[in-house]
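Q: I have 203 residues here and want to know how they pack in 3D. Can you give me a structure?
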Amino acid sequence: MSGSKCYCVAASMMVMVRFGAFVLLVIFIINDVKPAIRGLYMRRTMCTVLTSSFSSDTVSCECPGEMRRGCRSSFPCLKINVTFVGRHRQNLTGVLVDNQKNMGYRGDQLCSTRPCNKYRYHNVNRVEDFQRSVGQTGQTFSCYFDPGDQTEVFRQVLDANVWAIFHYLFWPSFAMVFSCGCGCFLLGKVNFEEIQTMDQRFR
């Protein structure tokens, strides 16, 4: 294989790396950065369980890491209602959610925990364990709320620090810039070799 062809193959690989890094960046922003930024504004309070019950319907979900295979599963929807002291020292009622990465659901999709293993019985066990842990009526424990949206209360906050957000954004962006630079360099080498080849032919 000639040098120019090698450079073309390498440049094509850099394009694939850049595309993969872009997709990864979008996934990180949706799944990790947005919840992490929201976690920075969470305030700690105390929650007391009012009710803990299962809805009549199960919730369907796509198994993480198994989406390419069309893996779908389901879990029972547990809804734990709690009271807590919110913004301005008001006594409020909200739905307890295990962490802020499971935020934003409404209606029948608003469940206190959302395990999605491809084996449904694993999901059932995890939901029941969560209920035994923090879903007993009258139980009190520390929790977190977002002053901007107090409809949900969170049992724990994940990756809510500036360094986690930095790493989620920096490494895919670095891969995109690095692969772009390498691709431009390799294409420049291809053009340079082609010019040299044309000069040799006309001599």
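Q: Anything worth noting?
A: The mean pLDDT is 79. DSSP finds three helices and five strands in the chain.
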